[in-house]
Amino acid sequence: MDRKVILLADVKGVGHKNDVVSVSVGYAANYLLPQRLAIEATSERIAALSKHKTAVSQEKDVALARAQDLAAKLTGQSVTVRAKATPQGRLYGGITPDEIAAAIGSQLGVAVEKRTVSTDEPIKALGVYAVALKLNPQVTALVSVTVAEIV
């Protein structure tokens, strides 16, 4: 005999958070429910879960659309970051994602978080670099960053 429950957390071998699963009565009563890993799956709770999943899906769609619009604005744009350098063109310090995000904000007028900035290798010399901005798990924009010497 089985019992339907809604998982409140990922349970290995059973399912993921917010899944409605059938488990044995003993497993539900002796492990899942006392450990607060699941709740009883009543019709009201299943309906509320369905509503919640729909709302989350809509929020993800809106976030994806915003990221795509932002990527369209940023792709192909160029910003300049100035830093102190040796006569050979090596920087005294590297260019950080924070500096790149600040340059994009001030020069392009678009606020991006420093955690979205990713470079292939650390920027430690003068030159032009392609920098990826991961705006969403599915959306990435490429921006050109020119590192120039402070005069």
From TrEMBL:
Pfam families: Ribosomal_L9_C, Ribosomal_L9_N
Keywords, in A-Z order: Ribonucleoprotein, Ribosomal protein, RNA-binding, rRNA-binding
InterPro entries: Ribosomal_bL9 (IPR000244), Ribosomal_bL9/RNase_H1_N (IPR009027), Ribosomal_bL9_bac/chp (IPR020594), Ribosomal_bL9_C (IPR020069), Ribosomal_bL9_C_sf (IPR036791), Ribosomal_bL9_N (IPR020070), Ribosomal_bL9_N_sf (IPR036935)
All copies of domain Ribosomal protein L9, residue ranges: 15-42
Biological process, per Gene Ontology: translation
GO CC entries: ribonucleoprotein complex; ribosome
GO molecular function, a single term: structural constituent of ribosome
Family assignment from sequence similarity: Belongs to the bacterial ribosomal protein bL9 family.
Protein purpose: Binds to the 23S rRNA.
Name used for this protein in its record: Large ribosomal subunit protein bL9
Species in which this protein is naturally found: Candidatus Cryosericum septentrionale
Upper lineage: Bacteria, Pseudomonadati, Caldisericota/Cryosericota group, Candidatus Cryosericota, Candidatus Cryosericia
